[in-house]
Here is the input.
Amino acid sequence: MSKNLKALACIASILLASPAFAAWQLNMRPGITELSKQAYGLHMEILWICVAIGVVVFGAMIYSLIKFRHSKGAIADTTLLHSTKVEVIWTTIPIIILVFMAYPAARGLIKDEDMSGADMTIKVTGYQWKWEYDYLDQKVDFFSTLARDSNAARIKGSGIDPYSVPNYLLEVDHPLVVPVHKKVRMLLTAGDVIHAWWVPALGMKRDAIPGFINELWFRADEEGTYRGQCAELCGRDHGFMPIVVVVKSEADYAAWLNAQHAPPAEAAPNAPAAASAAAPATT
Here is the structure.
């Protein structure tokens, strides 16, 4: 018996180790925006309310089953079967709990839809299988597609080990770049079928629907690179349509923006060709 206990203790210690526990993380993440943190806080608040309700209800049931079991001579009390007082109590208490839970949820939904006071607006258009980002205030427009190394490794028979590719299927050639601590308003639509723009760290997801404009906003509180994916089944290559958002400081964002506005460098003239063209013809 002691050997079995030791084995169970060893397995428990392995599962509770940080790498293993991180791999089995099932809870929401707080994210890096006020909306994601608000959703996480509401989620945890409702979770603990449900846990408390479960403890009270199942605790009362287990206590009643043990304390008043038939083998101990307990006799059922029929006076509570049609008690108006009891029915009012067990109806009123859930209503109060639901109102208590609904108020912060409604307040959060109202905040989610408040697009006022945005510092910048970006139009996002989904295509099979890429994203187009149009910075309406800065006149910057580009497409974002799966990075070439991931695209090469995903092809059957390529011989490339996917584990050797950094951020396999989660990297793009041109990420969305935004400044930190700025309210970003996004207008989402699609050019072919329904897509969905989703980045977990931002706490936001919206469908991109052809002929329709959806809106969302976020304000990132931390610099860094955050990854997401299309969250709507949009066709054969749906799984190869990642999203990458890079949050930069205001200075770095301004430098990136200036680089986008800079004219492309001109190719150097072909010296040999120019020289041969300039040489006089011989006979």
The radius of gyration is 29 Å.
